[in-house]
What we know:
Number of domains: 1
Mean pLDDT: 94
Number of strands: 0
Shape: globular
Helix content: over 70%
Distance between the termini: 40 Å
Largest sheet: none
Number of helices: 6
Amino acid sequence: MPFLNRFSDHLYSLMRLMAGFLFACHGAQKLFGVLGGPAMRHVPLMLAAGIIEFFGGLLIALGVFTVFAAFIASGEMATGYFLGHAPHGFWPIRNHGELAVLLCFVFLYIASRGDGTWSVRRFLKGKRI
Length: 129
């Protein structure tokens, strides 16, 4: 819709913020056992995933080191899909891997686009500290 074009930068920042926040929630669940799931710190792969998801999600949401955090998050989601979902069948809808695939490509897009309009980095860059 043409009238949304003028808001595309702000909508991108909102998408980046929400994707990062929700990713951080998955990491918080794995690390701290909050938000409806058990902590999984005792499983090394889940500990690594929790660290990437929690801290990477926060960085993506805030717009700090966004390109690096999103690229790593995209790779983590691809790895999670191929290790956890793909062995159970080819189609993501059948192997329950659609969220991993979607997040992989959302984070890859964020890595290609960067911080966006609303970000801590851009806010601090505008300030003369």
